[in-house]
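Hello forum,

I keep getting stuck at the same step: I have a sequence, I want structure tokens, and every attempt I make locally crashes halfway through. Rather than fight my setup again tonight, could one of you with a working pipeline run this one for me? It's a single chain of 314 residues.
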Amino acid sequence: MLAGRRGVVFARPKCYLPFCPIILIGSAFGGDLADALGIAVGAFGRVALLSATEPVQDHAHSQVHALIKISGADTSFLVDGQTAQMTDRQMVLVNPWIVHSNDREIGIDPTILLALYIDPLWFGEQGNQIVTGFHKLPFHQIVAEVSPELHSRARHLADQMADFHTEEDHFDPLLRELVFSVLQCSKTNATSDVSSRRTFASDPRVRRAIRAFREEPSKEIDLSEVAKNVGLSRSQFYARFRHCTGLSPRTYIDTLCCERAASLLSDPEHTIAEISEVLGFSAQGHFTRFFKSKTGVSPNNFRMGHIEVGRVLR
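Reply #2:
Ran it on my machine without issues. Output:
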């Protein structure tokens, strides 16, 4: 652990090399690439600086999600069935609960990217309406141009994370400025065609199932039993759930498990084996493969690259 100013603690990987492979070594993101990351967690949600080297399977997030390239190879994502290219001049945008993936080939040059997972409630009342399904979703398209101002702000924030130099009263305004630039560049005054066909709160049976999923997310949840408890057959339950959320029940549970895992991994008091057991995995190796397939990084790398903003890690 490295103690920062004002009680902020930065968790760094142990280093046995002449340099420490956090994200990139050298000034202004020069030097060698490392398969590591920096992750900041706070009231805003999560921000990750990633060196993407492997494909990521279908997954979703409850947060407003934006992917901004910092350096390295261009790459593409599949967002709600559409291809979205991420380049120096174009970012990828994903609304809450939209399935997306990255099928990059193993062996190509890494892509250094800044991934924003912004809690809708951070936006205030508008965010609360997004969560409950009564407000248009933030993004009406899956890509947007990266303005010079946005690119500069993204690199500034990435510099802070790569150097593990951050504190709450400095990180928060940097992130707010970046998110504002993302929203400006994405033309958020337009209507999301996704929000018009998904009504998260429309069916009380689906709401009951979601409450049950959220109470204790686990890979051991029996979906046939859940369907029976809400008064539907298994096939009816799957159809109604997908109609209301755009996701299968299993994808929804996987998303909750990933988010629960990320939260627990941010607390070093929980071992990875304990987290695996809490989430219903029969073996730690199964959990590790699951988490990496959904996030692109292993649980151990996620934990080692963690920066906690505004809360001391003990």
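DSSP finds ten helices and 13 strands in the chain. If your local run keeps crashing, start a new thread with the error log.
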